[in-house]
Amino acid sequence: MSAGPATVVVSGAHVATVDAAGTEYPDGYVVVRGNRIVDVGAGPAPVIDGARVVDGRGCLLTPGLVNTHHHLYQWITRGLAADDTLFGWLTTLYPIWAGIDADAVRTAATGGLAWLAKHGCTTTTDHHYVVPRDGGDVFGAEIEAAQTVGLRFHPSRGSMDLGHSQGGLPPDSVVERLEDVLKGTQDVIDRWHDPAPDSMLRIAVAPCSPFSVTGDLLTEAAALARSAGVRLHTHLAETLDEHDFCHERFGCTPVQYMEQLGWVGPDVWYAHAVHLDDVAIAAMAGTGTGAAHCPTSNARLGAGIARAKDLHVAGVPLGLGVDGAASNEACNMLEEARHAVLFARARGGPGEMTVRTALELATRGGARVLGREDELGSLEPGKLADLALWRVDTLAHSGITDPVAALVLGVTPPLELLLVNGRAVVERGRVITVNEENVAAEVEQAHRALVRKAG
Ligand SMILES: [Zn+2]
């Protein structure tokens, strides 16, 4: 074989393919050509003239991690309201978030995306729902950041139209009018959505939550998304407060409310899905409605522990999400995998979740939630070249015989290499697409300016 341009061979690694059969090669290789995986197997790697050969000895090779819920703009508002509940935390943060603009969002998103990459994430969603009238092109700003850092990006155009004066939670100053939301959402789809099979950028439609948007907006947003062929996302069943809000206002559970509005189906995924009864889980499974399980954020805000095993066993498409940086200062997808295992077992006993199920949720599960299981989430010939090479032979992990256990239960290993669409984004623990120190300094400055602006 001779090499075309940009052929990369990773050899001598423990390869966890995370395919449907759970195939692993303790001494295996992967060959990438351009933006696709072309070969995966056991034993010595094929010799290809001109290829870059990466020595994977002492490393675990996995699919890149897929993050199914985030709010990147919050990267410059981390650590605030550190000991509050969701509703109290939101009430503290809304006035600060009201001051964001395109520059602030670009800085926040660059920091947040670089951090995700540094911890093995290759595809991420974002849920951006604060769109100040005079804030400029906040959506364009985060897309620019994703292109700079080099991650595969599924941003969702969020919105709020149920202000405090109408019985909602957010202050009136951060809500939009329904017609402005619909126009803004359509504009974003027309401008940015790329449905191509190897797309680096897909848009979703994402009104914020039942307690911050009207039923009219949810209904209209679903119609818009379906006519444009894009996915639907929202927060749902995160806290008991939300459960009570839905009961008092609509006389039903959050999932029943969403069913009434047409917000179920294989093109819909909910963030959190913590407080679900058996009827809700059956409804999600029966309609193919997905969930982004965010164990760290749910614990940080004391929201509860989602029934991850029950969702998974029922067949609900299930991925993991870091959630916004203001409710998860770590924003590390491997921590989500670890917390998914630990919290599931703490909640339901030792048989609740295996380490390999957690890795599956962080990769192929997330790809399924985003409707991209045929392209992403496992190391198989023909799939897109999104992969993470973790060093598991340092002091942190040496002596742990099972590298998947080392990855999920240990501290996050150093990342030897991260390829996104065949392109190196992280090398030997450093993000190479941006200057990490400069980004850190810009984040610090943007954080101070924003807090100062809120007075
Ligand atoms: Zn969220």
UniProtKB/TrEMBL annotation:
The Swiss-Prot or TrEMBL record annotates one GO molecular function as: deaminase activity
Q: Which CDD domains match?
A: ATZ_TRZ_like (cd01298)
Q: Where is the Amidohydrolase-related domain?
A: 61-393
E.C. no: 3.5.4.32
Its name, as the record gives it, is: 8-oxoguanine deaminase
- Print the keywords alphabetically: Hydrolase, Metal-binding, Zinc
Give the NCBIfam families listed for this entry.
PRK08203.1 (NF006055)
Q: Which PANTHER family match?
A: AMIDOHYDROLASE-RELATED DOMAIN-CONTAINING PROTEIN, AMINOHYDROLASE SSNA-RELATED
* Source taxon at top rank: Bacteria
Q: Which organism is it from?
A: Rhodococcus opacus
A Pfam family that this protein carries is Amidohydro_1
